[in-house]
Amino acid sequence: MIAFLKGSVAAVLPPSTAYIDVNGVGYGVTMAQSALAKLPPAGEAVTVLTYLSVTENGIGLYGFLSEEEKAMFERLVAVSKVGPKMALAALSTYSPRELADAIAAGDVSRVSHIPGVGKKTAERIILELKGTLEESMASLFSDEGAGAASADAVALAGATEALLAMGFTSAEAEVALKGAPEGAGEGALLQYALKRLGSR
Q: Phi and psi (nearest 5°) for 106?
């Protein structure tokens, strides 16, 4: 599984594709239009959270700039007859918070505004996600906002990648980073993890 890509923006091809250069390997990532617009200019560093979809029709790599966006995408594609394309259309139309609020309110009209989503599909999305969506997304929709959650996720992903590059296993990295101070940058997280690993 590809959990994230950390590299630089090689190219952006609207309406939904970005090429991310990771150590000379170019990954084609499909993203919501709103996320694509937030990517830095070509050549600048970026970390993209990813979801790898493997179906009988092929393999697709989908990218996100925040944990909220990825979590909402995963919940949407779990709904019957809602595929990645429709889930990205939803995230291009509404922010994760706006979509969660519309689903929680049972607002069929707002959900139907998503391209490709008719009344019946909107009703199905609300029926399958209302209630459970609020519980699963609550920790992400903190008072600190989406930016803080995204920054924390990027820092954690970077520290994890550094530990793996040093030869530690993913299990060791996960345990070492557990309980790390909130809001810490990648460097601080790495120091925290190495101190814990060294004290064993």
A: 65, 30
What are the tens digits of pLDDT across the range 147-196? Answer: 555 566 777 888 888 888 888 888 888 888 888 877 777 788 888 888 88
Pairwise CA distance, residues 178 & 193, whole Å:
8
- Judged by DSSP in three states, 138 sits in coil
- Let me know: does 129 contact 103? Beta carbons within 8 Å: yes
Q: How far is CA 128 from CA 10, 82, 99, 133, 134, in A?
A: 38, 11, 14, 9, 12
Mapping DSSP onto H, E and C, the string for 93-128 reads HCCHHHHHHHHHCCCHHHHCCCCCCCHHHHHHHHHH
90, 15, 28: which is closest to 62 by C-alpha? Answer: 28
Handedness of CA 134, 135, 137, 138 (dihedral sign): positive
Answer yes or no: are the C-beta atoms of 27 and 5 closer than 8 Å.
yes
Look up residue 115 and give its two tokens. 């391209």
**pTM of the predicted model as reported, rounded to 2 decimal places:** 0.66
Q: Dihedral sign for Cα 42, 45, 47, 50, please.
A: positive
